[in-house]
Write a structure and sequence with these properties.
The structure holds two protein chains of two kinds. Chain A has a single domain, classed as NAD(P)-binding Rossmann-like Domain (Rossmann fold). In chain A, 47% of the residues lie in helices and 17% in strands. The longest helix of chain A has 29 residues. The radius of gyration of chain A is 18 Å and the shape is globular. By secondary structure, chain B is of the alpha+beta class. Helix content of chain B is 26%, strand content 24%. Chain B is built from 13 helices and 20 strands. An eight-stranded antiparallel beta sheet of chain B has the order 15-11-13-12-18-19-17-20. In chain B, β7 and β8 form a beta hairpin. In chain B, α9 runs antiparallel to α10. The longest helix of chain B is centred in the last third of the chain and has 15 residues. Chain B is globular. Classes of the chains: A alpha/beta, B alpha+beta. Chains A and B meet through α2 of A and β4 and β5 of B. Flavin-adenine dinucleotide binds next to β2, α3 and β9 of chain B.
Chain lengths: 244, 438
């Protein structure tokens, strides 16, 4: 029976992963900022087969509360910790508002880096476990359409690259999950290309198996790997002229 | 993200704009904003209704797919509470391991809990268990005029009776609590028997319905003359022992929508003759998994596409017991003569267990259901004849399957419709309701 910590548990992608684990009888420590949503999710996982579900209300940007949360979560050893929270930054608004840009950075990068720092030491001490964090394909290259969000995700990915190598020696894995377009509340109202957009349930299956087999970087679905390879290798002279 | 939503029959082709609700606390706001453009809206479940009962008059629907959380389960007594967007498929996956099953299930598991209540669906065990609504203990409604209301047969009896089978008009169902049925095994001990005509069907039903919880028949809608009403009777009970497991069979998806229907007179005759011949003449018993028994059509996802871009209509009528033999015979004869119809025509005898719902479709009698590719001749040539037969027999059509019924016919068959109209939420209105109330 796996013991799993999820931060940003009410995210549609994270909840879909949790349901798969619940079906196998996992036990959960769920962290999110809205009590009512968290309660729905907790009862849902319970009915779907979770062996135990504990919850903790926390805003990820409130770094002062991280310690208390982790203290409770690690009352027993954990097998998996997944960080999922994030906000899709309003690029146009960020361009006009440095404070907003920094807030977006706090949510999508700084809070995640703070959590990873603490989680890493605890997992290192356990000398076992799988850490996972949802970044994005948007971090692979800064695009004019969403470089604030992309840069924050890229910061986490680069941070993970180094941290993974450090944790490797203690047998702890760190999976950097990079989804493409997923149909979730975050992307409601955006005109996403239908053929490239996946359901949360679909990406969840790949995330679950990737985290369990301790994958390093996981493009979800897989087809985003060649797409992003292509985008990364476009010559700058061309890239800067594109409206992406 | 979703492009315009249609009903299962894709006819009438009125693409609906979706207003997604992700969490219960957003529901009041989305209800108002979805109704803003044209005054009214309607909840849309999984869109498994064939005609226009799941289409909003305004073309703006509320989609509650993300409201799919289980809220509570009491495994010792088989009580389950869930949000309305939960599908019957996920309910089965959650409850079978604990030794429970849906008390009533329609022929597909891809319907939502809210949709199952709003159409008060029935299944192969109608003669034993009645409709789905009989097993609903209470439900949470959101109304634009009253806010949140909990309705049950005890607390808000009128609203409860209007909501079960209420076609989504009396409020948005947020959650419901249902009573499950116990099972020992998830396998079915089934029997199938071929019958040569309608009289044989009635004789079989007389003899075997009482011995089986689940009964349904396939009928060859092409057969004429003395063979009218020939088919295969299938019945079963949950096995008392054996495997208890959630099934996850591989599924195929029909990949595209052809420009014209692939169901036509030729393919129909060939299939039906083959299917009838394939069924053996004696009584065949077999143990089978619950999926092929309850949900044979669910193995091919999006099978509705075979009817082409023009879509199709289902005709489901119920003829009261006293007129059943003559009425069903007349319907089948008229259909066979027309040469159109479907591979899957279904005959089922309903029992006399009353539903709590005011507009519930089933009654004691026999129901016949089959699909027809949509053409402009369908209604004037065939459906008008069938409607006349149903009318003369004092029968009724199933709103969940309907796209053509005349207002007079609806109001005659469902005299309690005015009570629903009186309790209708002012912000909710379907195409169907507008059509039959004119
Ligand atoms: C292959 C197949 C087999 C079928 N077999 C049977 C059968 O054996 N017996 C039977 O009875 N039916 C059968 N049906 C019909 C189907 O069960 C019903 O149409 C069912 O109601 C569809 O549920 P849905 O979730 O798709 O709802 P939709 O079709 O999307 O909506 C149906 C109605 O429910 C309302 N509704 C949906 N959600 C809510 C909510 N949260 N609050 C308020 N109102 C809501 C809608 O407004 C609409 O009026 C079958 C359909 C198919 C495709
Ligand atoms: N959807 C996509 O196309 C896509 C693509 C690539 C990457 N991603 C990433 O995938 C992850 C999950 O997103 P999703 O698609 O599942 O969207 P989602 O359902 O909207 O989930 C986002 C979650 O983040 C939470 N959150 C935001 N700020 C928070 C904060 N300060 N503290 C705590 N929680 C906070 C939200 O909580 P509330 O509900 O309380 O607001 C919400 O549960 C995100 O990191 C996102 O960047 C998504």
């Amino acid at each position: 029976m796996k013991r799993i910590l999820i931060i940003g548990a009410t995210s549609a992608i994270a909840a879909a992963c949790a349901r798969l684990w619940a079906g196998e009888g996992a036990s959960f420590f769920l962290v999110a900022r809205h009590a009512e949503k968290l309660a729905s999710l907790a009862s849902d996982l319970d009915v779907r087969g979770a062996s135990a579900v504990a919850t903790f209300i926390m805003d990820a940007n409130d770094t002062a509360s991280h310690d208390a949360m982790l203290e409770q979560a690690f009352a027993r050893e954990l097998d998996i910790a997944l960080i999922a929270h994030g906000t899709l930054s309003d690029q146009a608004a960020c361009e006009q508002d440095a404070a907003l840009t920094l807030r977006e950075f706090t949510t999508n990068a700084l809070s995640v880096i703070a959590l990873l720092t603490e989680l890493a030491s605890r997992f290192e001490r356990q000398r076992a476990g799988a850490l996972a964090v949802i970044t994005s394909v948007a971090g692979d290259r800064g695009r004019p359409g969403n470089y604030v969000y992309g840069a924050a995700k890229a910061a986490v990915s680069t941070f993970c690259e180094g941290l993974r190598a450090r944790l490797f020696r203690s047998g702890v894995s760190l999976t950097d999950i990079r989804p493409g377009f997923v149909d979730t509340p975050m992307t409601r109202g955006l005109a996403l290309p239908r053929l490239l957009t996946s359901a949360p349930e679909t990406v969840a299956r790949r995330i679950k198996s990737g985290v369990e087999r301790k994958a390093d970087v996981l493009y979800v679905p897989f087809f985003w790997f060649p797409i992003m390879a292509l985008i990364r290798h476009l010559p700058r002279a061309i890239f800067k002229r594109m409206r992406l | 993200m979703s492009e315009g939503l249609l009903s299962w029959g894709a006819y009438p082709r009125l693409p609906q704009r979706a207003h997604d609700v992700d969490w219960r606390d957003e529901l009041p706001d989305v209800l108002v904003s979805a109704a803003k453009a044209r005054g009214t809206t309607l909840a849309y479940g999984e869109g498994r209704s064939y005609g226009d009962s799941c289409l909003a008059d305004s073309g703006h629907v509320l989609t509650l797919r993300a409201l799919d959380h289980f809220l509570f389960a009491d495994w010792s007594n088989g009580i389950l509470r869930a949000e309305a967007g939960v599908t019957l498929e996920s309910i089965l996956a959650a409850v079978i391991p604990h030794g429970w099953f849906l008390p009533v299930t329609p022929g597909t598991k891809y319907v939502s809990l809210g949709g199952a209540i709003a159409n008060d669906v029935h299944g192969k065990n109608h003669h034993r268990r009645g409709t789905f609504g009989r097993h609903v203990r209470r439900l949470g409604l959101l109304r634009s005029d009253r806010g949140r209301v909990v309705a049950s047969p005890e607390t808000e009896p009128e609203l409860f009776a209007a909501t079960v089978g209420g076609l989504g008009l009396t409020g948005i169902i947020e959650w419901a609590e249902i009573q499950l049925s116990p099972i020992r095994s998830s396998q079915i001990d089934g029997i199938s028997v071929r019958f040569g005509d309608l009289d044989e069907f009635f004789a079989l039903s007389e003899e075997l319905d009482a011995q089986h919880e689940f009964c349904v028949s396939w009928v060859d809608c092409v057969a004429r003359g003395k063979k009218t009403g020939r088919g295969v009777y299938m019945a079963g009970n949950f096995a008392a022992d054996g495997r208890r497991a959630v099934e996850n069979r591989r599924r195929l998806t029909f990949p595209f929508t052809p420009p014209v229907s692939l169901v036509n007179a030729c393919s129909l005759r060939a299939f039906n003759t083959l299917y009838w011949r394939k069924a053996s003449s004696g009584r065949r018993r077999a143990r089978m998994a619950y999926e092929p028994f309850f949900y044979p059509l669910d193995t091919l996802l999006k099978w509705n596409r075979i009817y082409g871009t023009g879509g199709f209509q289902q005709y489901q009528a119920l003829i009261p017991e006293s007129e059943a033999r003559a009425g069903i015979h007349a319907l089948l004869a008229a259909i066979a003569q027309s040469g159109v119809g479907s591979f899957l025509a279904v005959l089922k005898r309903c029992g006399d267990i009353a539903s709590p719902g005011l507009l519930s479709f089933p009654r004691a009698g026999v129901t016949l259901a089959l699909d027809f590719p949509q053409t402009r001749h369908l209604e004037p040539r065939l459906f008008s004849r069938l409607d006349a037969i149903v009318r003369a027999a004092g029968g009724r059509l199933y709103p969940a399957k309907d796209a053509h019924m005349r207002g007079e016919d609806f109001r005659r068959a469902y005299p309690l419709w005015e009570k629903i109209e009186a309790l209708r939420d002012p912000l909710l209105l379907s195409r169907f309701w507008r059509r039959v109330n004119r």
